[in-house]
Specification:
- The complex is a heterodimer of chains A (817) and B (343).
- Chain A contains 5 helices and 50 strands.
- Chain A has a 22-stranded antiparallel β-barrel. In chain A, strands 1, 4, 6, 8 and 9 form a 5-stranded mixed sheet that branches.
- Helix content of chain B is 10%, strand content 41%.
- Chain B has helices spanning 2-21, 279-294; strands spanning 23-27, 38-44, 51-56, 58-59, 74-79, 82-86, 88-90, 105-108, 119-125, 132-137, 144-155, 158-168, 176-180, 182-188, 201-208, 238-240, 248-258, 267-277, 312-328, 337-341.
- In chain B, strands 2, 3, 7, 8, 13, 14, 15, 16, 18, 19 and 20 form an 11-stranded mixed sheet that branches. A 4-stranded antiparallel sheet of chain B has the order 6-5-9-10, with no helix packed on it. Chain B has a 3-stranded antiparallel sheet with strand order 11-12-17, with no helix packed on it.
- The longest helix of chain B has 20 residues, at 2-21.
- Chain B is globular, with a radius of gyration of 24 Å.
- Chain B starts with a helix and ends with a strand.
- The chains are: A mainly beta (817), B mainly beta (343).
- Chains A and B meet through strand 43, strand 44, strand 45, strand 48 and strand 49 of A and helix 1, strand 1, strand 2, strand 3 and strand 4 of B.
């Protein structure tokens, strides 16, 4: 039945272009047409510009560049006036006399003119309203650098948390919860390659270095068929390609880390590179103090934490039609502690022992993508990618005892390792059939290699025949994933536009096969030139689970494949919305959504950590969830003052047969109201400032306020240890969260570059937001009313709130050359 | 559990670092007031008079809390919908010096013992409280037999004893079990390098040998290589028939370090019991065990303890058991002095 449906849908999709061209008698489709195609790039760097608008004034037709800066626009023969525009850049206008297919490339220059902003409004902003794509936000990269954030560390995910429909997790963390979905339901793509763990510093920073990022798009719904494999969101991050024309760099020193970026041509206008790296340095700075502390001590201890990451990319243009990219990311977090002890055995000079203990905890990602863009015809663009992604986490413990005179040594070694490794290949096509009809289609294959938990255990001894060297839990799981998709963007009428697509996913793991048919549909109706209404439906499936503690995000979270017992989670989401312009250069977006999620898993009650792969299925429960709500956003993208204000009203609930007695309960991150205000103001070329204010009603926690004696009949509990009565899972609401961040950037043009001092204050009015709450007790001593003259003593319960980030000023220095 | 320790230590270090910039404040509890509820504990067994323990829950803000006996509750027992008996209040045993009053008020039957094939309802009415009730039936017992015992010398005078118990799970229903093994040990504290001194006593100590089943896969289904220690201990040795439906199963018990010096009239009298318990009792024990093991862990999701009491808390459960015995040594022996060891 599914095969029949797919065949019918494929036939429908392929027949549409013929229908679209035959149906409109007397329409521009019957006039001889030529194809105008080419690339839009940044004039200074040569970077390809994504979603730049190419608009023909006379025919009122236009298009946008694809993810690689390519556009293709069928136009009638004769005179044409093309306007190419992009946010923050001066538009370029070219008059052409078209008599045949034409290839023309555009280079845009950055602009600070308000007149240009008006011109952009006419074409660029209309494209956004006209697009069928809804529930997608394109975040300008400069926002990451201008908005104030904690410790002055610009972060992609921290800015995404300010958008409507996106909840943050715990205070300071980079976890995102999109339209009721959990942290494992977000697909992070770095140049098209999935990133499994996007966290540094236990979740306080993300792995995405803003200096290496060119564009960020967040999809919350209305997912085009080219995206899949996660239920709730896609964060599509594209790296810079490197300046083709000149060498440039940027160095920055901050409170947490320092960064260095370099980019430039290897062969001018043909080959360029970009490389960005950063590292924390508290472990280095603390080392002298630790060494000083250890002086004269028998027991010497050292420890620390650091992370580093490195982004590198090189691209080469073979011709106007062919281009090759190689991009890589490497990042690692490491926490460690070492102790060396040499006891002083007085009176026993022959006895010299050294005891060493070392502990290490580390996690990291390696990502590589090799891409080849090829322009098959001026209508058909292809992108072929080979990808590699690896995430791993390991804990090592080593203890040794060595007799220093004889150098006889015994060592105990323990290592726990967990990881996931993907190798894949895919090919994607953009087919620009006409101004009213464009098709994207493609296919891909991924080989997954899961290592849910491997333990190496070595125990050494001096006794012959004793000792142990073994590996347990070595349960590697291999899986194959095959994907095909097709999506068609078509103008059904002059006002009604549709993007219809289907994604077919096949997943094979061990002896289990899953085939999931995922239809997608988006509709846009133009009520007026400045007002559109949109409707979308998406079915999404994912083939991996992330077992995570419900309390906090840790690198110990395990990625595991679906199994026969636990089927792929599936979501259905319907969204409706509208976009329109209002006076003051303001864009308003209003959306409402309803989403259901099935085959979700959570740990059984009482569980608190991810485990090894063996037996995990017996430790989790299966259930479902749903979320619904409305989002409002007013955005100003042009002028000296830019930014947005967003508001979300939402409900997120879960129901598991064996949790909470089978009753529905709110998800931990169910937050009823969420407001965010993000503004930047450019006072002059030398000074700009940013402001962020967020407010959210309290998230949920499980708290009980009554207790009762344990049973005396059958259990071992003492009736001093009362049982807490929890009315229900996540029954309690934490206090509301709100804070204000302020920042100012002072620029000064120097001889060889631009230096910037950035000052910011996180949580400017020192709001003590809740990190978590817990019951504690306070000892009371007071006169006993029943016995005058006597005292009575008892414990009184107190609800205590832990807040982690009070007002935090920060400063950083950067130099761009 | 090494990984938990090391990861916890790093998390603790990170939390400590955060504590430098964090602070703690006392806030008002702004949750719904929870009205006190009736708490019922009742465990029906064949050949035992019906006994019900009654208490009440209280707000955590009710401090200082002093337990009180509830003498005016009306506790009724219904069998198949018909009133069987109204139970009489009995004075409970007093507690220790710290809390002289027991929170458990005991109501017992003078005549009624539960029987198979009937549905029992325990209903408790306390003035000022909603009437609370729970229902249960006696589960059918499942025969267990001692299939095999063996022992091996592990050195240093100790022996490892292996015991196998066999039973067949009924195929036509869901069954829930608990394994217990009350035992008595006779221990001679005299000089083991000398012959038995008749003036010395052999002390009899009550013990529990159920721990020997902890390594059986039906008791502890997770392998020991689960170094993450994600599983909770099956403290009450409960299991269901999901893996053994309708089949014969042999429970393996292992005891290490056993040292029974029969020449000193030491002995072990063990009763291996297979308790058939109700599903409600199974869920109660499972959740209570999880609650106990995680209540002090800030990273664990709190565990609500299961209850089948409507308008109240606690558990109304039932069990029946069969047992087989194992005797090592001889007891009693004429001429040997015995004394109960109470600690």
């Amino acid at each position: 039945m599914r095969i029949l449906l797919c065949t019918a849908l494929a036939a429908f999709v392929l027949a549409l272009p013929l229908k679209a061209q035959r149906s409109a008698a007397g329409s521009p489709a019957t006039t001889p047409r030529v194809i105008v195609s080419g690339y839009v790039t940044d004039a200074l760097s040569g970077e390809r510009m994504i979603d730049a608008t190419v608009y023909e004034r006379a025919s009122f037709t236009g298009t946008i560049t694809n993810s690689y800066g390519f556009f293709s626009l069928p136009l009638p023969e004769g005179r044409a006036e093309l306007i190419v525009s992009y946010l923050g850049y001066s538009p370029d206008t070219v008059a052409l006399q078209l008599s045949r297919d034409t290839v023309i490339n555009f280079s845009l220059r950055m602009s600070s003119s308000e007149i240009d902003a008006v011109t952009i409004t006419a074409s660029g902003r209309r494209t956004k309203i006209e697009s069928t794509q809804m529930s997608m936000i394109d975040i300008p990269v400069e926002k990451f650098l201008r908005l104030p954030v904690i410790f002055g560390e610009a972060d992609v995910l921290k800015v995404i948390q300010l958008l409507p429909g996106v909840q943050s997790g715990t205070e300071g963390s980079t976890g995102i919860y999109v339209r009721g979905g959990g942290p494992d339901q977000n697909l992070f793509l770095l140049d098209g390659v999935p990133v499994y763990n996007a966290n540094h510093l236990f979740g306080f920073m993300s792995v995405f270095n803003p200096d290496a990022v060119k564009s960020v798009q967040l999809y919350k719904g209305g997912f085009p068929a080219r995206f899949g494999e996660r239920l709730s969101s896609v964060v599509d991050i594209r790296m810079k390609e490197g300046n083709e024309k000149e060498f440039h760099g940027n160095a920055a020193v901050g409170l947490i880390s320092s960064k260095l970026s370099m980019e430039g041509p290897i062969l001018k206008d043909k080959t360029s590179f970009v490389i960005s790296g950063r590292r924390t340095y508290y472990d280095v700075l603390a080392r002298p103090f630790i060494m000083k502390y250890n002086q004269g001590q028998e027991d010497k201890t050292t420890g620390g934490y650091y992370f580093y990451d490195l982004n590198a990319k090189i691209n080469h243009k073979f011709s106007e039609k062919s281009r090759l990219y190689l991009s890589s990311y490497l990042g690692r977090d490491r926490a460690y502690s070492r102790n060396t002890y040499r006891p002083n055995y007085e009176g026993e000079p022959d006895m010299r022992m050294e005891f060493k203990d070392s502990y290490g905890l580390g996690w990291g990602n390696i990502i590589t993508a090799l891409r080849w863009n090829y322009l098959i015809t001026n209508k058909l663009f292809s992108n072929t990618t080979i990808t590699y992604s690896k995430y791993d986490f390991d804990v090592t413990i080593e203890s040794s005892a060595e007799e220093l005179n004889s150098h006889v040594k015994e060592t105990d070694y323990f290592r726990y390792f967990s990881g996931i490794e993907d190798v894949g290949a895919k090919i994607d096509f953009d087919y620009f059939l006409s101004t009213r009809h464009s098709v994207k289609f493609g296919t891909g294959y991924t080989f997954h290699h899961f290592s849910p938990g491997v333990t190496t255990f070595r125990y050494g001894t001096q006794q012959p025949g004793e000792g142990l060297d073994t590996i347990v839990g070595d349960m590697k799981v291999r899986a194959n994933e095959l994907v095909m998709y097709a999506e068609d963007n078509i103008d059904l009428t002059s006002r009604l536009k549709m993007n219809a697509g289907v994604r077919l996913s096949y997943f094979n793991v061990q002896d289990t096969n899953y085939f999931v048919f995922q239809p997608r549909l988006s509709l846009r109706y133009m009520a007026t030139d400045d007002l559109s209404f949109k409707l979308s439906y998406s079915k999404m499936a994912q083939f991996v689970h992330l077992l995570t503690t419900s309390a906090i995000s840790l690198p110990t979270d395990l990625w595991l494949p679906v199994t026969r017992r636990y089927e792929p989670p599936v979501s259905h989401q319907v969204a409706i919305g509208s976009g329109f312009l209002i006076p003051g250069d303001l864009e308003v977006t209003v959306e409402a959504f309803y989403k259901t999620m099935d085959n979700l898993i959570e740990y059984k009650e009482g569980a608190f950590f991810g485990g090894t792969g063996s037996g995990w299925e017996s430790k989790v429960e299966k259930g479902r969830g749903w979320a619904y709500g409305a989002e409002f956003m007013i955005e100003k993208s042009y002028g000296k003052l830019t930014g947005w204000i967003g508001y979300t009203l939402s409900w997120t609930q879960r129901k598991f047969e064996n949790l909470n007695y089978g009753r529905t309960f709110p998800a931990k991150y169910d937050r009823r109201h969420d407001v965010s205000l993000a503004l930047t103001h450019k006072f002059s070329d030398r000074v700009d400032a940013g402001l962020v204010w967020v407010y959210g009603t309290g998230t949920a926690a499980t708290l009980g306020a009554s207790e009762y004696p344990p049973g005396n009949l059958y259990t071992r509990g003492s009736w001093y240890d009362n049982i807490t009565d929890f009315p229900g899972r996540n029954n309690y609401r934490l206090p509301a969260y709100h804070r204000l961040d302020l920042g100012v950037n002072l620029h000064k043009q120097k001889k060889h570059g631009l230096r910037t001092w950035s000052f910011s204050v996180y949580n400017a009015y020192n709001r003590l937001n809740p990190f978590f709450v817990y019951w504690s007790t306070r000892w009371i001593e007071e006169p006993d009313p029943a016995n005058p003259g006597m005292m009575r003593y008892y414990s009184k319960p107190e609800l205590r709130k832990i807040s982690v980030f009070p007002i935090i000023p920060s400063v950083s220095y950067s130099y761009k050359f | 559990m090494k990984i938990i320790r090391i990861v916890n230590s790093f998390v603790a270090a990170a939390m400590t670092a955060l504590a430098i910039v964090s602070c703690e404040t006392v806030i008002d509890y702004k949750g719904p007031e929870t009205e006190p509820k009736t708490v019922i504990y009742a465990l029906l067994q064949p050949d035992s008079l019906i006994s019900v323990s009654v208490s009440v829950s209280h707000s955590v803000f009710q401090v200082p809390w002093e337990p009180e006996q509830i003498r005016d509750a009306v506790v009724r027992v219904y069998r198949d919908g018909e009133l069987l008996e109204t139970l009489a209040y009995m004075d409970s045993e007093s507690g220790n010096d710290d809390a002289p009053v027991s929170p458990y008020s005991i109501y017992t039957s003078q005549t009624s013992k539960p029987e198979y094939g009937h549905k029992y309802r325990i209903e408790v009415q306390i003035p000022g409280f909603r009437t609370a009730y729970g229902e249960t039936s006696l589960p059918a017992p499942v025969e267990i037999e001692l299939a095999d015992t063996s022992s091996a010398d592990t050195g240093y005078g100790f022996r490892q004893m292996n015991v196998k118990l066999r039973f067949r799970d009924p195929a036509d229903e869901d069954n829930y079990y608990r394994f217990t093994a009350p035992a008595r040990f006779g221990i001679y504290y005299g000089d083991h390098s000398q012959p038995f001194d008749p003036e010395q006593k052999v002390y009899i100590r009550a013990d529990d040998l159920s721990y020997g089943a902890l390594n059986d896969p039906i008791i502890t289904p997770v392998k020991e290589d689960d170094f993450f220690g994600m599983y909770l201990q099956n403290e009450y040795l409960i299991f269901n028939d999901e893996l053994i439906r309708g089949r014969e199963y042999t429970l393996s018990l292992t005891y290490s370090g056993m040292d029974v010096r029969t020449e000193y009239y030491e002995f072990i009298l063990a009763l291996f019991r297979l308790n058939s318990i109700t599903r409600d009792l199974y869920l109660f024990l499972q959740s209570y065990s999880a609650y106990e093991q995680t209540q002090d862990n800030p990273l664990a999701e709190p565990v609500p303890v299961y209850t089948n009491v409507t308008n109240g808390l606690g558990i109304v459960g039932a069990l029946s058991f069969t047992q087989d015995s194992l005797t090592i040594g001889e007891y009693p022996v004429e001429g040997v002095q015995y004394e109960m060891q109470l600690y």
